[in-house]
Amino acid sequence: MKRIWLVLIIILSLNLLVGCNDVTQETEKEKSNDVNQGKVVPINNPADYFPLAKGSFWEYEGDGNEYASFNRKVLFTKGNLAQISEDNGGTVITRIIEAADNGIKLVYFEPESYNPNNMLETAFVSNNDTILIKGPIQVGTNWTDNDGAKEIVAVDAQVDTPIGKFDNCIKIKTKSIEEVIYRYYKKDIGMVKQEFISGDTTITSTLKKYKIE
After folding, report:
1. For 209, what's the count of Cα atoms within 13 Å in the CB-facing half-sphere?
2. Helix (H, G, I), strand (E, B), or coil: what is residue 6?
3. Nearest-CA neighbor of 194 among 79, 70, 55, 53?
4. Which of 87, 94, 86, 98 is nearest to 119 (CA)?
5. 19, 103, 154, 183 alpha-carbon torsion, rounded to 10°
């Protein structure tokens, strides 16, 4: 149980399918015509699934562990960086997230951070390099980092939450030696559910309240 608690603390801290590579010139012309006629061709970036506006917050209902419930808030932003505070009742964590068109990356992590200052205005030293979401947003996109092997396994997942059903969520699987984690993200909202599975133990965190600025 102690190991599960530690892993849970870490994991808490811690877009539409694109076409085939050999797109024909005719298809490209059709897309161009659609744009010229005022029709927007939707292409989702990883940043679409991880809103980082200052003041945005999310609250999650937990099941399976006392620390599975937590809240997350964007405290400060600067350029493509956002400083986030997370409180799960056991500790308060500071994370700094870097957003780019090709990925969302965790670049700084600090537990026991109860009175965080605005680190984006100082020369903070990155201590992490974990990719949370990687593009292109399509089934099969995969990568590996310190968390384990990750892959987008669905882009049309449905997730039931206390505040309703979310359709067309992306589902990211993280596989390590002893556990599997599934995270579900909804465009323009963020993470709506997280499932941690280790043997017979399942711990979930499900969105029950949020506000996007």
Report:
1. 9
2. helix
3. 70
4. 94
5. -170
Q: Where along the chain do its domains lie?
A: 2-15+45-211
Q: Cβ–Cβ contacts within 10 Å for residue 43, how many?
A: 15
CA distances to 72, 103, 184 from 42, in Å: 28, 17, 20
- Mean pLDDT, to the nearest integer, of 146-159? 96
Where helices occur in the chain by DSSP H, the ranges are 2-13, 25-36
- In CATH terms, the fold of domain 2-15+45-211 is YmcC-like fold (2.40.360)
pTM of the entire predicted model? 0.81
For residue 74 the two structure tokens come to 């964007």
C-beta of residue 46 within 8 angstroms of C-beta of residue 135:
yes
Nearest to 158 by CA among 169, 142, 173, 172: 169
Question: pLDDT value at position 123?
Answer: 85
Name the phi and psi angles at 93, rounded to 5.
-115, 135
pLDDT (mean) for 27-47: 52
